[in-house]
């Protein structure tokens, strides 16, 4: 189970939790600074996630390699003004069935859109 959360002893992080135990591993300790919408790739080697808009309205679509601990910022999008606060457009990234493409929501054109990016 991959989740972003807070543990009193270590703080806010992405955690890889082992089901039905108290075992956990911090993922991307000094790499991720905020929550997102993570999803594992079909091969479990990567996960993708997004960020909420920062103060400059930038949102990041991120791929993270679990083994190499490497973060790749795939896309940086500036969200549109009409889509702020409760009506913001989170990216909500999701893999295709074979792990070659990622679909995500975006408002960078001024309208809510479904976008895709092919990964090689």
User: Which whole number gives the mean pLDDT?
Assistant: 93
Structural class from helices and strands? mainly beta
- The helix/strand series, from N terminus to C terminus, equals EEEEEEEEEE
Low-confidence runs = none
Helicity range of the residues?
under 10%
Termini separation: 26 Å
What's the shape? globular
Total helical segments: 0
Number of distinct beta strands: 10
How many separate domains?
Answer: 1
Strand order in space, largest sheet: 4-5-6-7
Describe the main β-sheet briefly: 4 strands, antiparallel
What does this molecule look like?
The structure is a single chain. With 120 residues, this protein is mostly beta strands. It has one domain (31-118). Helices cover 0% and strands 46% of the residues. It has no helices and ten strands. A four-stranded antiparallel sheet has the order 4-5-6-7, with no helix packed on it. The protein has a three-stranded antiparallel sheet with strand order 1-2-3, with no helix packed on it. A three-stranded antiparallel sheet has the order 8-9-10, with no helix packed on it. It starts with a strand and ends with a strand. The mean pLDDT is 93.
What's the quick description here?
The chain has 120 residues and is mainly β. The protein has strands at residues 2-7, 11-17, 24-27, 39-40, 46-50, 58-65, 70-78, 94-95, 101-106, 113-118. The radius of gyration is 15 Å and the shape is globular.
């Amino acid at each position: 189970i991959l989740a972003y959360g807070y543990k009193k002893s270590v703080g806010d992080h992405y955690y890889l939790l082992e089901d039905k135990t108290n075992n956990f591993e911090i993922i991307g300790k000094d790499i991720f600074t905020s929550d997102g919408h993570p999803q594992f790739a079909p091969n479990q080697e990567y996960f993708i996630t997004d960020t909420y808009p920062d103060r400059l309205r930038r949102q990041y679509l991120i791929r993270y390699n679990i083994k190499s601990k490497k973060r790749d910022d795939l896309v940086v999008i500036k969200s549109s003004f009409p889509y702020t606060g409760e009506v913001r457009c989170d990216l909500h990234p999701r893999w295709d069935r074979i792990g070659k493409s990622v679909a995500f929501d975006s408002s960078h054109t001024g309208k809510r859109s479904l976008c895709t990016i092919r990964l090689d």
